[in-house]
Amino acid sequence: MKKNTSFPWVSHAVCIFAVAALAALFVFPARYLDKMAGVISEEGEQARIAIMDGRQASAQVHILNMLREFEKRKDSIMLFFHHEDVDEMERALNCARDLVALDESDNLICELNSIMQIAEHMRSVENAKLSDIF
Amino acid sequence: MVKSVHYIIMFILFVRAIILYLLVFVVIRLSGKRQISDLQPFDLVITLLVADVASVPASDTGMPLAYGVVPILALFLVQQLFAWLSLKYEGFRNVTCGAPLLVIIKGVVQEPTLRSARYTLNDLMEQLRAKDVFEIADVEYAILETNGQLSVLLKGSEQSVTYKALGLEPPAAVPPYMVVQDGKVHEKALRQSGYDQSWLMKKLAKAGIKGTEELLFAFISGGKLHLQTKSNHGARAIFLDCGGEK
To answer: What pLDDT is attached to residue A3?
Structure first.
């Protein structure tokens, strides 16, 4: 039998840990997402311009840069995003790589648009609206 | 303020968890005391919600674990805040936990009070029976506590006779100490009881027991040593006086 318990201290410690964990979840992962989404948007835009100008080799370089950036950060973003969204982006990037090799400009532009849409969704400058909560 | 979608998702999860906590809390608080058992409403809410929140990311492998972690941490923090506020402020405690209700006063069942607590006569009888009281006539006061439990004060004629009422010297009130459990000696409990291992071994030898490994348990309570041997040693219950040398 015990005369007292260490529970209040444990409870306080867990509260501090919970606040710290929440703060970390709010702050740190955003860095990964913003950086990756920024690179993919930028490279995607340049790839689109290159395709329109008929510079397939340049477009291929930009698409490979996008793929490399995605592969580098894939595991990190899977911690904070629905895995279906991440898989969808991977599929679109692989498809774009194949299409540029096959020289299918029309389909490639469509695929690039969808990639950039997902990237924008990840870092889009949105504010939380009341309707989002409900 | 919130700049990326990541923030928005986490923020939405956080706010939603708090809104749902408050909503479920209000529903439980308003649904009457018989819905609550042993727990205060703000404790019961977290019990109900956490399991459900945790089950979603546990079963959906496509969902990041963070989507389960954020609401659980939010619920935990709100519950801690409620517990702290109810400790600190009586007014807050009255709002969140309610106040005890007198449902029987001087043997008279308070019908309006029962009705206000959504407590039926069947519920009252059930709780009384759980307290070994089978007739309302035996009850002087019954109080419905904030956690839904019933406290009963019997009429004087129905109360147990005490040492004090009989003018007798009561035995010293000391807690029982479990000094052996499953053959293992609890050194700390043995020390707290005021005895040591050599004393215990002497007592065991007197009872014909070779060692503590033969014991299922040993209690020291009210100046008695209560032993029981394991089933493979006959499952004997032995009572010895603790008296003598310590």
So the answer is: 57
